Amino acid sequence: MIEELAKENKVKVDNKQFEIEFKKHQELSRTASADIFKSGLADNSEMTKRLHTATHLLNEALRKVLSKDIKQRGSNITPERLRFDFNFPRKLTEEEIKKVEEWVNDKINKALDMKRDEMPIEKALNSGAQAEFGHKYPSVVSVYTISAKNKEIVSREICTGPHVSNTKELGKFKIVKDEGVAAGIRRIKAIVK
Ligand SMILES: [Zn+2]
């Protein structure tokens, strides 16, 4: 096709030079795809951090909007969404879902720092850190705290991570599903973008 075009335009094509350039181009394309693949993986782990950190805010939002007796009963993260199970007896109303989303997005918009401290499990629990119901923890745990600008604690959980260091990295939080999974246990699926 190149030769045809060249003939039409009365230009002589150097096939050998063309081949060399073509090989160079192929090599560049391969390198570019390898980079895309690598950054794709990096994005996945970045997304996991964002979604997981969002579960900390969701946990606290549910306690604020629905009931302070809410405890995490399980969590699962894929690159597409977070999944969070908790004790609550009924489906959330649209109003409640909106309030939870607003509470989380407000904390994201406020660009709050998250910091990690290591401490004995008793001290962590006494400091008000949330723990997953029924989960066995080691004697020394990592506690992740999100604080407001006035130092007030927004969220504190015993956790192993991974997390972002500031809530502004999360993006906009949205609940996409609320379903029952067992008697008295609800499951929320949510995304950040
Ligand atoms: Zn965590």
Broad CATH class: Alpha Beta
Q: Which class of secondary structure composition applies to the elements?
A: alpha+beta
Number of helices: 4
Strand content: 25-35%
In total, how many beta strands? 7
Q: How is the main sheet built? A: 4 strands, antiparallel
Ligand types: zinc ion
Strand order of the largest sheet: 1-2-7-6
Helix content: 40-55%
Give the helices and strands as they follow along the chain.
Answer: HHEEHEHEEEE
Report the CATH architecture.
2-Layer Sandwich
What is the overall shape?
elongated
Average pLDDT over all residues:
88
- Which residues form runs of ≥5 with pLDDT under 50? 33-41
| CATH fold assignment | Threonyl-tRNA Synthetase, Chain A, domain 2
Number of domains: 1
What is the terminal separation in angstroms? 44 Å
CATH superfamily: Threonyl-trna Synthetase, Chain A, domain 2
Rg result: 25 Å
